[in-house]
Amino acid sequence: MQRYIGALILSVILSLVGYAIAVFWSGSDETLQAAARLSLPMWALVLLLSVLNYVLRFVRWEYFLRKLDTPRIPQGHHFLIYLAGFALTTTPGKAGEAVRSFYLKPYGVGYGQSLSVLFVERLMDLLAVVLIALLAANYFDDPRYGTAAWASAAVVLALLPLIHYYPLWDWIESKAAAISERLGSGVTKLVVMIKDSAILLKNRLLYGGLILAIVAWGLEGFGFYLVLYSLGVEVDVMVAVGIYSIAVLVGAISFLPGGLGGTEAVMGLLLLAVGTDKSSAVAATLICRLATLWFAVVLGIGALAGVMRSDVQKSFVAK
C-alpha cells in the first residue's frame, strides 16, 4: 500500500508540473479565461456524468462477482470498496485498483475471483473505448485514427478466443509445475484467474457487460462535448466523443499511470487538429481530466478512508 501511495503522490506532482507547462505554453491568461466559461451548473452536470460512469461500472462489477458465486456484500459498503480502488488509479497499469481485493477478502471473496473480475473489467473497458473510437473515426479526415482504432480492436478481439482456449493454459500450467514447485504454484493461480475470467466473457455476460461499458464511457465522452460547447468550441458531438475515446485509448495502451501525459497530449493535439485555438484546447483538456481522472481519484481517496475507518471500527468492536 505504501508503494502505491508513493506512486500516487509522484503522479500528482508530475501532473501539476505538466499542466503548469501546458498552461504557460498556451498563454496563462487566455487559458484561464477560457476555463472560466464553464459555469458551476455545467461543472455539476459533467461531474454527474462521471458519477454515472462509476455507478454503471459498479453494477457490472457486482453482477460479475455474483456470477462467480461470491457471498453477497452490503451494497453500500461494497460500492465504497469499489470506489476505493480509484484512489490508486494513477498507479502503473492501474494496478493499484487491485486494493479492492484486500478489502473484499474478509467478506469471503477470494483474491483470484476479484482479480478475475478486475481483469475482465479492464478488457471490456478497453474494447468499449475502441468501439466508440471506431464509430467516431469516420468523422476525422486523417485515416491514421481509424487505422489505430482497428488495430487496437483486432488485438483485443484476438485475446477473447485465446482466453477461452483451456488446453493452452493447462499446458502452460503443467510446464511451469515441471520447472519448479514455486513457479507452478504461481502459474496455477494465474490459470485459475484466467479460467474464471473466461466464464465472464461468454455470450450474454460478454455482450451485457460490453453494452454497459459503452454507455458508461460514452457518458464521459458526452461530458467532454459539454465542456467544449461551454468553452465555445464548435464541434460535432461524435467528434468530441471520438477525441475523448481516442485519447483515453492511447493512454490505456501506453500503460502510463492513469494514461497521464499520453491522454492529455493526444486530446490536445486532436483538438488543435479540428481547429480549436491553443488556450481553449488546453483548458478543455485540463477540465476534462479534472472531471474524470482526478475526480475519480479524489472520490477514491475519500472512499478508501471510509473503508479503512469502517474496518478499524469493526476490529475495535470485535475486541
A few lines on this structure:
Helix content is 81%, strand content 0%.
Structure description:
It is a single chain. With 319 residues, the chain is mainly α. It has one domain (2-318). The chain has helices spanning 2-26, 28-35, 40-67, 75-84, 99-104, 111-137, 143-164, 166-179, 181-199, 203-230, 237-254, 262-273, 278-318. The two termini are 25 Å apart. Mean pLDDT is 84; it is low at 315-319.
Globally, the shape reads globular
Tally of separate helices:
13
Structure classification: mainly alpha
Given as residue ranges, the uncertain stretches (5+ residues, pLDDT < 50) are 315-319
The total number of structural domains is 1
Q: List the secondary-structure elements in sequence, H or E.
A: HHHHHHHHHHHHH
Cα radius of gyration in angstroms: 21 Å
Instruction: Give the biggest beta sheet.
Output: none
Query: Level of helix content?
Result: over 70%
| Percent range for β-strand residues | under 5%
* Number of DSSP E strands: 0
pLDDT averaged over residues: 84
Indicate the topology.
Elements: H1 2-26, H2 28-35, H3 40-67, H4 75-84, H5 99-104, H6 111-137, H7 143-164, H8 166-179, H9 181-199, H10 203-230, H11 237-254, H12 262-273, H13 278-318
Helix pairs in contact: 1-2, 1-13, 2-13, 3-4, 3-6, 3-10, 3-13, 4-13, 6-7, 6-9, 6-10, 6-11, 8-9, 10-11, 10-13, 11-12, 12-13
Offer a few descriptive terms.
single chain, about 325 residues, mainly alpha, 13 helices
